[in-house]
Amino acid sequence: MPTIPIDVSPRRGPTKGGTELIITGSNFTDSGEIACRFVDKIVKAKRINSAEIRCIAPPWPQEEKDIDLGIQVFKGIDYAATLYTYYELAQVKTVMPSRGPLSGFTQLAVTGAKFEEYEKGDLECAFKQEDSSNFFVDGGKQPFILTHATLVNETFLRCDTPSLLNKQGYAVEADNAWFDVYVTKDGGNELSETSGRFEYYSDPFIYDIMPALGPVTGGTVVTINGTGFDQNTTCGIFVRLGIVEFKPDKITNDSLVFIAPHSNFPGTAAVTVSLNGQQFTQ
Question: Which of 96, 112, 141, 229 could form a disulfide with 92 if both were Cys (CB 3.0 to 4.6 A apart)?
């Protein structure tokens, strides 16, 4: 009976090669010569059983990326073929904002190149550390943390940062917490060639505001007292007064000083602070 391949998993892999392919089918005879043929490249395969073989995809410098993957049970004879697609690994250039709170959910704007190569797969951001042991919300470790990514165009995507808080709302091993941010389409099996750095900071706290009122004409010098305003991992401190956002005039770790702007209407306005220009205190 002829050899019949049914599927190859994964169906796509990077042009650098090295992806282990699992090919399922039937009648994979134990000939001792089983091989995978990538056009003109022959790669020795490992027979698992009569319904499964495995081989490693070779590097692929050619322009054509969709190829027929031939299965040879006996040397030089193709018994069947299935489709396999090569893609180029993406490159990450910038991650903005580069910092955010331990509670996570900072929306990142990730720029780079070749993101369109990942359009056919499940696009995600992979948050990884060099030592391959990351923070995890319940105190465990894992190689990386994945979050869903939205492709905007071939050089731009968005994704959210993971939270480093456990179920009780406390940070786990959060001192000097950071991740290198990669892009992946296959659950982290292959990461982008380059990455961007993201660092965490502790949420600031507001104790009081002095004075707590002023004229609608503005000009009142206001001091926000609290803690955690001037951390090393901040990247753009803003004060929000109602719906108006602006940078404070003076910054220390325990206080922020600003001049109240003009207001068209009298009334109470909420005062909040952001250390990354995106996420404000509650």
Answer: 112
